[in-house]
Structure formats: C-alpha cells, structure tokens
Write a structure and sequence with these properties.
heterodimer, A: 315 residues, mainly alpha, three-stranded antiparallel sheet, 10 helices, 6 strands, B: 323 residues, 78% helix, globular
Chain lengths: 315, 323
C-alpha cells in the first residue's frame, strides 16, 4: 500500500472517493441554489435536466420564466405557458439566466443542489457510523484475542449471531421504535456493523501473536500493552483498512436504504436515499429525480469498493 | 454424521435463542418502556390492554422476558393492530411469499453468477472478463432499491413486460389454478430478477477468484497432463474442491438475501415478511414487526443449517473439522 497508487483500481477508487468527499465538503459553496427553497413552485416543478430558464426573484418569491421583456416599470414574462406582468420595483435581484443541470423536483427545488447537500449528510452519516463500527469491531476483536477463552467464546458467538441475522430487520426495528434522526441512524448503523471488523481483528491478532517477531518481543519481557500497540496492531492494519473501505461503502448503501424506506434521514433534509424515494412516484414523467441521486450513491460506493480491491492487490 | 447433525442443530437452536433475545431487547431498549410506546394515540385501548397482558408490563424485566420467550415459543404472538387478525395468521400467509421470492432469487443468482464466474476464470484478462468485472462492480455499488426502481420504470411502466406490483392480478380469484400459477410467476419474475441479478455479481467474483487459484494447483496441471478433456478437468478436478466453501458461503449470503428481499418486497408490493414488517413499522404494529424480525432470523438459521449439511455432504473432511 502506498500513497501514490500504481494500479488501476486504487487510482480510480481514490479519484471517485476524493471527488465524492470534495463535493460533499464543498457542497454548500458550490451548490447553485438553496436546496430547500422552491425556485418556482408552479412552473418550476419537474423541469428536465439541462433546462434553461430566467430566474426572476421578487419579494413574493422567485419565478422561473421562459421569456422576459423589460420596460421601465413593468416586466412582461412568459411563465408556465402564460404571459404575465410583474412590477419592476418588486425585484430583489437582477433577473439572471440559469441552467438547471440536474433538473428540479416536485416542489421546483434544484436537484443538483439537493444532491450536493445530500452528499454532505449521507457521507457524514456513513463515515461516522463506519468509524464507530470499526472502532467497536477492533475493540471487540482485541478483547476476544487477548481476553481469555471464555470471553472470546461469548464475544464471537454474539458476533456470529448478529452476522447471521438479516441486518435490515434489526436496523428497521431499532430505527422505527426510536425517533428517526441523524444520531439514531449513526448509532444504529454503527452498533449493527461491527461484527466483520471484530472477526478480522481477532483472526489477524491471533495469527500475528504466534509469528516469530511477536514471540521474540514477548520473550524480551515487554508488557502486553506494548506488544499489542507496537508489534501487533501496525501489522494487522492493512487488512483492516481494506475492510474499512468496504464497510464504509456498505454503510453508505445501508443509510440510503434506511432513508429510502422512510426510517433514516427525514425530509426536508436531503439525503441520497430520501432523494431517490422522492422520485419513485414519477419514474417515467420525471426520471431524473430517482435516477441521478442513485447514480451518485453508485459512483461513491464504487469508489470505496475499487479502493478496497486495489489495496488488497497491492498489500 | 449424526454427531455433526446434532452439533449443527444445537448451534441453530442457540442462535435462534440469541435472535429472540435480540428482538426482545430491541423492543425494550427503545427510549421509554414498551408501555410508553403504547401511549401512541393510534393504538386503541383494547389493544393496549391486550399487549400489556401479552408483555406482562407490570412485572420485572427478567420475568417479562421469560414469559415473552415462553409465549413466543408456543406461538402466542398477539393480534395485529393493522390486520385485526392473529399475528400467526398474518405471518403464515406472508412466509410462503418470502420463501418463493428468496428461493427464485437464489436460483437466478447461482444460475447467472456461477457459470459466468467459471467462464471469467478461464478467460481471465479477456475483454469479456473485464466487462463482467465492471458490470458486477457496478451492480454491487448501486443500491438495490434504485435497481428495482429502474427495472420497474423500464420493464413494467414503459415496456409493460411485467406487472408492477402484488403477487396476483386483481381478477385472479376467478381463474383456474393453472392460470393463477402462471399469473403468480409473471408477478414474481421482476422482483426475483432484480434481487437475483443484484447479488449475482458477488457469486461471479467469488467463483472467479476461487477457481483462478485452483486452476493453478498442481493437481489441475496433472489432470491436464494426463490428457483429460478440458471440461472434465474443469468440472471434476477444479470445481469439486471449491464446492464446499461455496456452499458454506451460501449460508453466509442468506441474511443479505432476506434484507434485499425486504427492499424488493416494499417496492413491488410483494406480500412477504419484509413488506409486512415495513407496513407494520409504518403503522406502529409492534407485534407484527417483532414476529417478522424473529421469523426472518429463523429463516436464515434454517437456511444455514441446510447449507452446512450440503457442504458436509460435498466434502467429507468438513464433517470432522467443523466446530
């Protein structure tokens, strides 16, 4: 594993992950519009991607108009197929030409802005839940490897039991009984996602503990904590990193599924999952509402998967 | 063999017990006690009384747990708020639907994933292999619900090849049995295809990488050197030793299959366990949600048992070494 990746999977994976993270971080600054504000509730609903309109912002709210003629005190606009007159003193900003690259949703909100803001929420939840799951998994795995046979038996049975369970039922039951919200989603995904990391950590530690270098270190009389931190953990890290990239991809999918089903991030806050859910009633008439956020999820998860694959090949 | 069977069964029972305990804890660890869950105004007073009876809410937690466990084992799961029927009946009508969907999807996964994986392992590095890799990575990365919606939009709404929802047509009640069966398969096709194709990529990768390693083993070279035909080398010498791990993995993929089935059932309104659990959650129908959770766990455990037995049948060494 190196900082400057050579193989194709790592390069593409790193690129996609960095792209996703950058867009997620920079979302509020690069999003063209406020994600929660309807640009035009009447004539702006379900505009196709790439639509060009003129945005006229008045004190009564914004209009997306098709044509505009200015006279000294009146605006003659073509708006939703009708010609209307707007008094000029009500303008809050100069009218400007806008391109809605990803179209709009049913309330006339800009989908691109919603996807960018949704990236922020989805990635934050997935990263925090993923880190929580990994930390728990590494802790449980280390305890199992070093805590004696009895503890090992119990912890691994619990991990096996949870792994053998269709996770979504557990997640849904927990999220449904608790009030849905970002913290609950992070906790639920974190607490139900640690098992693979625990098993891997345990296996790696048990394998490494019997290697020559660890035996030599132990024979020299260093304390267990030092053996653990300096001689075992650094060597166990690469496979754990591979797993963590995979896990974060999975967590993005889990959060999206939870939000899609209505038990994750709640509207009007955008998350990739609930954006897809928004579009499921208009699959044909406004295909972009469900399709584009799904592609954003796919590209990011693909990035994490490729990263894991590339790391595994390089390791 | 008997010993192996008994150990496996004991493990399954233990796991089922863990699943039931987890289900109980999910209910009781929610903020407030189940009693405050019951203060939901949508729940009628008579039902509240019945639930308090069922869950013995006035007793200490340990006693509640034991009586709940005993009741669950005997099949006393209460009455559904939404369906106004005993939970047992609702589950009994949902279970076959989930089974038929899950088994069809499993069949599609294996029929697609395994042959394609074998092919990709033999043509490693070819254009077809690369396309398959990209395709399976894409299928793994996109959410299942999105795949289902895309299939629904194109195959059902636009081209009208498959019906969009439910397990039978509205007028099916008047049809003869053979036509109802055909109608069921027509409705089943799209959800099963989505669920199957979504997971076929995983099998493709597994088979491809497993076989790739085996094809480099000395005994495969020996088989080739003996002048055996290639199909015999592949099927008899190379596939056989990789079979048992695949069968064991089959057990491990079952939880994912059921989780996926829930999503697909919700989107296609397929009346299985997942759909019922989801509508139950939406309508705060706690007895149904708990029963669905417990049953989905039980299904996985049963499936794992079958997969283990198959694996043991295909590889005698496993009968001895398995924990």
């Amino acid at each position: 594993m190196s900082l400057f990746p050579r193989n194709w999977s790592t390069r593409t994976g790193t690129g996609l992950v960095l792209l996703g993270l950058t867009l997620g971080l920079a979302g509020p600054w690069i999003a063209p519009f406020d994600p929660d504000r309807p640009l035009d509730p009447v004539a702006g609903a379900h505009l196709a991607p790439g639509s060009e309109r003129i945005l006229v912002e008045t004190d009564l709210g914004p209009y997306l108009v098709e044509r505009l003629e200015m006279s000294p005190d009146l605006l003659r606009v073509r708006h939703g197929g009708e010609t209307k007159l707007l008094p000029v003193e009500r303008l809050e900003r100069d009218p400007r030409r806008v391109t809605l690259w990803a179209g709009t949703d049913r309330y006339g909100r800009d989908l691109l802005s919603r996807i960018l803001w949704g990236a922020r929420v989805s990635l934050r939840v997935a990263l925090l839940a993923g880190v929580l799951a990994l930390a728990l998994g590494i802790a449980v795995g280390s305890l199992a490897a070093f805590g004696g046979r009895f503890l090992d038996g119990i912890l691994m049975r619990v991990a096996d039991g949870l792994l053998a369970f269709p996770r979504i039922f557990l997640i849904l039951a927990a999220a449904g009984f608790w009030a849905a919200g970002e913290t609950v989603v992070i906790l639920v995904l974190g607490l139900t996602g640690w098992m693979e990391a625990a098993r891997l950590t345990r296996t790696e530690l048990l394998r490494l503990r019997n290697e020559t270098h660890a035996q030599a270190a132990r024979a020299s009389g260093i304390p267990t904590s030092r053996l653990f931190l300096r001689h075992l953990v650094p060597l166990a890290l690469p496979p754990i990193l591979v797993l963590s990239a995979l896990r974060i991809g999975d967590t993005i999918l889990a959060e999206a599924t939870l939000s899609f089903l209505g038990f994750g991030i709640q509207p009007p806050t955008a998350s990739w999952g609930n954006l897809v859910a928004d579009g499921q009633d208009v699959l044909l008439s406004a295909w972009w509402v469900a399709t584009l956020p799904g592609l954003a999820i796919g590209a990011t998860v693909l990035g994490f998967t490729l990263l894991a694959e590339g790391w595994r090949e390089e390791a | 063999m008997t010993r192996f069977l008994l150990r496996r069964l004991a493990g399954a029972v233990l796991l089922l017990f863990l699943v039931l305990t987890a289900t109980f804890l999910v209910l009781h660890l929610a903020p407030g006690d189940p009693g405050s869950l019951l203060s939901d105004p949508r729940i009628p007073a008579s039902q509240r009384q019945a639930l308090q009876e069922l869950w013995k809410l006035d007793r200490p937690l340990a006693s509640q747990y034991l009586s709940w466990l005993w009741g669950t084992i005997r099949g006393e799961w209460g009455t559904s708020f939404l369906y106004r029927r005993p939970v047992t009946e609702v589950i009994a009508s949902a279970l076959p639907h989930t089974l038929i969907l899950g088994l069809s999807a499993l069949g599609i996964q294996l029929l697609l994933g395994v042959p394609l994986g074998l092919w990709a392992a033999r043509k490693r590095g070819s254009l077809g292999d690369r396309l398959l890799r990209i395709g399976s990575s894409f299928l793994y990365a996109v959410p299942l619900f999105w795949l289902a919606l895309m299939a629904l939009a194109l195959l059902s709404f636009r081209w009208g090849v498959f019906p969009p929802s439910h397990a039978l047509s509205v007028e099916a009640a008047e049809w003869p049995a053979w036509r109802r069966l055909l109608d069921l398969f027509h409705h089943l096709a799209l959800p099963a295809l989505v669920l199957g194709i979504g997971a076929a990529g995983g099998w493709l990768r597994l088979v491809r990488s497993g076989l790739r390693e085996t094809l480099e083993e000395p005994f495969v070279r020996t088989a080739r050197a003996k002048g055996l035909p290639e199909h015999r080398v592949l099927w008899v010498h190379a596939v056989r030793p990789t079979l048992a791990p695949w069968l064991q993995l089959l057990g491990l993929t079952l939880p994912g299959l059921l989780s996926g089935a829930l999503v697909v059932e919700v989107i296609f309104a397929w009346p299985g366990l997942g759909r019922i659990a989801w509508t139950g959650l939406m309508g705060r129908d706690y007895p149904i949600v708990l029963a669905c959770t417990a049953w989905s766990g039980a299904l996985v455990i049963l499936g794992n048992l079958v997969a283990d037995l198959l694996a043991a049948a295909s590889d005698p060494r496993l009968r001895e070494t398995v924990r």
